[in-house]
TrEMBL record:
The keyword Plastid is assigned to this record: no
Any Pfam family: adh_short
GO molecular function annotation: oxidoreductase activity
Keywords: Oxidoreductase
Protein name, entry field: Putative 2,4-dienoyl-CoA reductase
Keyword hit for Repeat: no
Top EC class for this record: oxidoreductase
Family as reported in the entry's similarity comment: Belongs to the short-chain dehydrogenases/reductases (SDR) family.
EC identifiers of the protein: 1.-.-.-
PROSITE patterns: ADH_SHORT
Amino acid sequence: MDYSVADNALKDKVILVTGAGAGIGKQAAISFAQHGATVILLGRTVKKLEQTYDEIEQAGYPQPAIIPLDMKGASKQNYLDMVDTIESQFGRLDGVLHNASILGVISPFDQIGEDSFDDVMQINVKAQFLLSQAVLPLLHKASDARMVFTSSTVGHVGRAFWGTYAMSKFATEGMMQVLADELSDTNIRVNAINPGGTRTGMRAKAFPAEDSDLLKTPLDIMPLYLYLMAPEGKAIHGQCIDAQPKK
Ligand SMILES: NC(=O)c1ccc[n+]([C@@H]2O[C@H](COP(=O)([O-])OP(=O)(O)OC[C@H]3O[C@@H](n4cnc5c(N)ncnc54)[C@H](OP(=O)(O)O)[C@@H]3O)[C@@H](O)[C@H]2O)c1
Protein backbone atom coordinates (compact mmCIF):
# COMPACT_ATOMS: atom_id res chain seq x y z
CA MET A 1 0.00 0.00 0.00
CA ASP A 2 1.30 3.45 -0.90
CA TYR A 3 0.96 5.75 2.10
CA SER A 4 2.52 8.83 0.54
CA VAL A 5 0.99 12.24 1.31
CA ALA A 6 1.56 15.76 0.04
CA ASP A 7 4.41 17.73 1.67
CA ASN A 8 1.89 20.18 3.15
CA ALA A 9 -0.83 17.57 3.83
CA LEU A 10 -1.36 18.75 7.42
CA LYS A 11 -1.11 22.49 6.80
CA ASP A 12 -3.27 24.50 9.26
CA LYS A 13 -4.24 21.35 11.20
CA VAL A 14 -3.92 21.24 14.98
CA ILE A 15 -2.98 17.76 16.20
CA LEU A 16 -2.60 16.47 19.75
CA VAL A 17 0.02 13.73 20.29
CA THR A 18 0.20 11.86 23.60
CA GLY A 19 3.57 10.54 24.71
CA ALA A 20 5.27 13.08 22.47
CA GLY A 21 8.52 13.17 24.43
CA ALA A 22 10.01 9.87 23.29
CA GLY A 23 9.92 7.06 20.79
CA ILE A 24 7.17 6.85 18.21
CA GLY A 25 5.17 9.77 19.66
CA LYS A 26 8.14 12.11 19.44
CA GLN A 27 8.77 11.20 15.81
CA ALA A 28 5.07 11.44 14.95
CA ALA A 29 4.92 14.95 16.42
CA ILE A 30 7.97 16.00 14.39
CA SER A 31 6.65 14.39 11.19
CA PHE A 32 3.18 15.96 11.59
CA ALA A 33 4.83 19.36 12.14
CA GLN A 34 7.07 18.81 9.12
CA HIS A 35 3.89 18.36 7.07
CA GLY A 36 2.45 21.65 8.30
CA ALA A 37 0.60 20.80 11.52
CA THR A 38 0.68 22.73 14.75
CA VAL A 39 1.31 19.92 17.20
CA ILE A 40 0.32 19.86 20.86
CA LEU A 41 2.84 17.77 22.74
CA LEU A 42 1.31 15.92 25.70
CA GLY A 43 3.41 13.83 28.07
CA ARG A 44 4.58 13.40 31.62
CA THR A 45 8.26 14.42 31.42
CA VAL A 46 8.54 18.11 30.61
CA LYS A 47 12.24 17.92 29.75
CA LYS A 48 11.55 15.36 27.01
CA LEU A 49 8.63 17.39 25.67
CA GLU A 50 10.91 20.43 25.53
CA GLN A 51 13.41 18.46 23.45
CA THR A 52 10.68 17.59 20.95
CA TYR A 53 9.56 21.23 21.00
CA ASP A 54 13.11 22.47 20.34
CA GLU A 55 13.63 20.06 17.43
CA ILE A 56 10.40 21.24 15.81
CA GLU A 57 11.22 24.89 16.36
CA GLN A 58 14.81 24.54 15.11
CA ALA A 59 13.55 22.85 11.96
CA GLY A 60 11.35 25.88 11.27
CA TYR A 61 8.06 23.96 11.45
CA PRO A 62 4.91 25.58 12.97
CA GLN A 63 5.43 26.49 16.62
CA PRO A 64 4.20 23.62 18.82
CA ALA A 65 2.71 23.73 22.31
CA ILE A 66 3.39 21.64 25.40
CA ILE A 67 0.84 20.13 27.77
CA PRO A 68 2.52 18.39 30.70
CA LEU A 69 0.14 15.72 32.02
CA ASP A 70 0.73 12.45 33.83
CA MET A 71 -2.00 10.22 32.47
CA LYS A 72 -1.65 7.95 35.46
CA GLY A 73 -3.24 10.47 37.77
CA ALA A 74 -5.19 12.68 35.37
CA SER A 75 -8.90 13.12 36.07
CA LYS A 76 -11.80 13.70 33.71
CA GLN A 77 -11.70 17.37 34.75
CA ASN A 78 -7.99 17.61 33.78
CA TYR A 79 -8.88 16.52 30.24
CA LEU A 80 -11.86 18.88 30.05
CA ASP A 81 -9.64 21.77 31.21
CA MET A 82 -7.03 20.77 28.64
CA VAL A 83 -9.61 20.91 25.86
CA ASP A 84 -10.73 24.37 27.04
CA THR A 85 -7.10 25.51 26.84
CA ILE A 86 -6.71 24.06 23.34
CA GLU A 87 -9.92 25.74 22.17
CA SER A 88 -8.99 29.12 23.62
CA GLN A 89 -5.40 29.00 22.31
CA PHE A 90 -5.90 27.41 18.90
CA GLY A 91 -9.65 27.63 18.28
CA ARG A 92 -9.71 24.11 16.85
CA LEU A 93 -8.52 20.52 17.05
CA ASP A 94 -8.27 18.35 13.93
CA GLY A 95 -6.56 15.21 15.15
CA VAL A 96 -5.48 13.13 18.13
CA LEU A 97 -2.80 10.46 18.16
CA HIS A 98 -3.33 8.25 21.19
CA ASN A 99 0.23 6.99 21.52
CA ALA A 100 1.31 7.09 25.19
CA SER A 101 1.39 3.68 26.83
CA ILE A 102 3.35 1.68 29.34
CA LEU A 103 4.45 -1.91 29.03
CA GLY A 104 3.89 -2.88 32.65
CA VAL A 105 5.50 -6.11 33.72
CA ILE A 106 6.15 -9.05 31.41
CA SER A 107 5.30 -11.96 33.69
CA PRO A 108 3.21 -15.09 34.08
CA PHE A 109 -0.49 -14.32 34.43
CA ASP A 110 -0.69 -15.54 38.02
CA GLN A 111 2.06 -13.12 39.04
CA ILE A 112 0.51 -9.94 37.68
CA GLY A 113 0.26 -7.56 40.63
CA GLU A 114 -2.95 -5.63 41.15
CA ASP A 115 -1.11 -2.29 41.23
CA SER A 116 0.69 -3.05 37.98
CA PHE A 117 -2.60 -4.13 36.37
CA ASP A 118 -4.27 -0.90 37.51
CA ASP A 119 -1.41 1.31 36.24
CA VAL A 120 -1.39 -0.26 32.78
CA MET A 121 -5.17 -0.14 32.44
CA GLN A 122 -5.25 3.45 33.73
CA ILE A 123 -2.62 4.80 31.32
CA ASN A 124 -3.27 2.58 28.30
CA VAL A 125 -7.07 2.43 28.43
CA LYS A 126 -8.91 4.70 30.89
CA ALA A 127 -6.80 7.76 30.11
CA GLN A 128 -7.52 7.28 26.38
CA PHE A 129 -11.22 6.87 27.15
CA LEU A 130 -11.34 10.11 29.19
CA LEU A 131 -9.26 12.01 26.65
CA SER A 132 -11.41 10.77 23.78
CA GLN A 133 -14.62 11.84 25.53
CA ALA A 134 -13.14 15.27 26.25
CA VAL A 135 -11.90 15.99 22.71
CA LEU A 136 -14.98 14.76 20.82
CA PRO A 137 -16.89 18.08 20.93
CA LEU A 138 -13.89 19.90 19.40
CA LEU A 139 -13.29 17.19 16.79
CA HIS A 140 -16.95 17.39 15.78
CA LYS A 141 -16.43 21.06 14.94
CA ALA A 142 -13.53 20.28 12.58
CA SER A 143 -14.31 19.70 8.93
CA ASP A 144 -12.17 16.54 8.59
CA ALA A 145 -11.03 15.15 11.93
CA ARG A 146 -8.99 12.11 12.95
CA MET A 147 -8.52 9.94 15.98
CA VAL A 148 -5.72 7.38 15.75
CA PHE A 149 -5.17 4.81 18.49
CA THR A 150 -2.06 2.68 19.00
CA SER A 151 -2.38 -1.07 19.32
CA SER A 152 0.14 -3.90 19.19
CA THR A 153 0.52 -7.33 17.69
CA VAL A 154 -0.50 -8.66 21.13
CA GLY A 155 -3.67 -6.57 20.82
CA HIS A 156 -4.78 -8.82 17.94
CA VAL A 157 -3.83 -12.21 19.44
CA GLY A 158 -2.99 -12.79 23.10
CA ARG A 159 0.49 -14.03 23.95
CA ALA A 160 1.94 -15.77 27.02
CA PHE A 161 3.47 -13.40 29.60
CA TRP A 162 2.26 -10.21 27.89
CA GLY A 163 -0.58 -10.03 30.45
CA THR A 164 -2.00 -6.62 31.17
CA TYR A 165 -0.32 -4.90 28.23
CA ALA A 166 -1.95 -7.33 25.78
CA MET A 167 -5.33 -6.97 27.49
CA SER A 168 -4.99 -3.18 27.34
CA LYS A 169 -4.32 -3.28 23.61
CA PHE A 170 -7.37 -5.50 22.99
CA ALA A 171 -9.34 -2.83 24.90
CA THR A 172 -7.76 -0.11 22.75
CA GLU A 173 -8.83 -1.85 19.56
CA GLY A 174 -12.30 -2.34 21.06
CA MET A 175 -12.55 1.36 21.93
CA MET A 176 -11.48 2.29 18.41
CA GLN A 177 -14.10 -0.04 16.86
CA VAL A 178 -16.94 1.20 19.10
CA LEU A 179 -16.09 4.83 18.37
CA ALA A 180 -15.64 4.22 14.67
CA ASP A 181 -19.05 2.55 14.44
CA GLU A 182 -20.72 5.38 16.37
CA LEU A 183 -18.99 8.06 14.32
CA SER A 184 -19.34 6.49 10.90
CA ASP A 185 -21.73 9.18 9.65
CA THR A 186 -19.66 12.07 11.00
CA ASN A 187 -16.60 14.08 9.96
CA ILE A 188 -14.37 12.06 12.34
CA ARG A 189 -12.37 9.09 11.04
CA VAL A 190 -11.18 6.66 13.73
CA ASN A 191 -8.48 4.05 13.25
CA ALA A 192 -5.60 2.32 15.03
CA ILE A 193 -2.03 1.52 14.11
CA ASN A 194 0.01 -1.48 15.20
CA PRO A 195 3.57 -0.12 14.86
CA GLY A 196 5.23 -3.56 14.93
CA GLY A 197 8.67 -3.95 16.51
CA THR A 198 10.19 -0.46 16.49
CA ARG A 199 13.46 0.87 17.95
CA THR A 200 12.31 2.68 21.13
CA GLY A 201 12.76 2.55 24.87
CA MET A 202 9.66 0.41 25.30
CA ARG A 203 10.87 -2.16 22.79
CA ALA A 204 14.28 -2.30 24.48
CA LYS A 205 12.55 -2.95 27.80
CA ALA A 206 10.50 -5.79 26.32
CA PHE A 207 13.38 -7.37 24.35
CA PRO A 208 16.62 -6.33 26.11
CA ALA A 209 18.75 -8.97 24.39
CA GLU A 210 17.83 -8.28 20.77
CA ASP A 211 19.97 -6.36 18.28
CA SER A 212 18.02 -3.10 17.99
CA ASP A 213 19.87 -2.18 14.79
CA LEU A 214 17.73 -4.78 13.02
CA LEU A 215 14.52 -2.98 13.97
CA LYS A 216 12.67 -0.32 12.02
CA THR A 217 13.01 3.17 13.48
CA PRO A 218 10.05 5.39 14.37
CA LEU A 219 10.87 7.42 11.23
CA ASP A 220 10.57 4.30 9.05
CA ILE A 221 6.94 3.75 10.08
CA MET A 222 5.79 7.37 9.73
CA PRO A 223 4.16 7.07 6.28
CA LEU A 224 1.16 5.23 7.78
CA TYR A 225 0.85 7.74 10.66
CA LEU A 226 0.87 10.63 8.22
CA TYR A 227 -1.56 8.93 5.87
CA LEU A 228 -4.18 8.31 8.55
CA MET A 229 -3.97 11.96 9.71
CA ALA A 230 -3.93 13.45 6.22
CA PRO A 231 -6.73 14.05 3.70
CA GLU A 232 -5.22 11.22 1.62
CA GLY A 233 -6.36 8.68 4.27
CA LYS A 234 -9.92 9.92 4.59
CA ALA A 235 -11.52 6.75 3.23
CA ILE A 236 -10.06 4.60 6.00
CA HIS A 237 -12.29 4.15 9.05
CA GLY A 238 -12.58 1.57 11.82
CA GLN A 239 -9.42 -0.31 10.92
CA CYS A 240 -6.33 -1.36 12.83
CA ILE A 241 -3.49 -1.32 10.33
CA ASP A 242 -0.08 -2.95 10.78
CA ALA A 243 2.72 -0.47 10.02
CA GLN A 244 4.97 -3.46 9.30
CA PRO A 245 2.73 -6.08 7.72
CA LYS A 246 4.15 -9.58 7.40
CA LYS A 247 5.27 -10.16 3.84
N1 LIG B 1 8.08 0.20 20.05
C1 LIG B 1 7.43 -0.87 19.67
O1 LIG B 1 8.05 -1.86 19.21
C2 LIG B 1 5.93 -0.93 19.77
C3 LIG B 1 5.29 -2.05 19.25
C4 LIG B 1 3.89 -2.13 19.34
C5 LIG B 1 3.19 -1.08 19.89
N2 LIG B 1 3.85 0.00 20.40
C6 LIG B 1 3.03 1.09 20.96
O2 LIG B 1 3.46 2.32 20.38
C7 LIG B 1 3.24 3.38 21.31
C8 LIG B 1 4.52 4.15 21.52
O3 LIG B 1 5.48 3.25 22.04
P1 LIG B 1 7.04 3.57 22.12
O4 LIG B 1 7.71 2.32 21.79
O5 LIG B 1 7.33 4.81 21.40
O6 LIG B 1 7.17 3.77 23.71
P2 LIG B 1 8.14 4.69 24.57
O7 LIG B 1 9.40 4.96 23.86
O8 LIG B 1 8.16 4.05 25.92
O9 LIG B 1 7.32 6.05 24.66
C9 LIG B 1 6.09 6.08 25.34
C10 LIG B 1 5.69 7.51 25.57
O10 LIG B 1 4.51 7.50 26.40
C11 LIG B 1 4.69 8.40 27.47
N3 LIG B 1 3.99 8.01 28.67
C12 LIG B 1 4.11 6.87 29.37
N4 LIG B 1 3.39 6.93 30.48
C13 LIG B 1 2.77 8.14 30.49
C14 LIG B 1 1.92 8.81 31.39
N5 LIG B 1 1.56 8.26 32.56
N6 LIG B 1 1.48 10.04 31.08
C15 LIG B 1 1.87 10.65 29.95
N7 LIG B 1 2.71 10.08 29.05
C16 LIG B 1 3.16 8.83 29.34
C17 LIG B 1 6.20 8.35 27.74
O11 LIG B 1 6.58 9.48 28.46
P3 LIG B 1 7.98 9.48 29.27
O12 LIG B 1 9.03 9.46 28.21
O13 LIG B 1 7.94 10.73 30.02
O14 LIG B 1 7.98 8.25 30.09
C18 LIG B 1 6.75 8.30 26.33
O15 LIG B 1 6.83 9.58 25.76
C19 LIG B 1 2.71 2.72 22.59
O16 LIG B 1 1.31 2.80 22.60
C20 LIG B 1 3.16 1.29 22.45
O17 LIG B 1 2.34 0.42 23.18
C21 LIG B 1 5.19 0.11 20.34
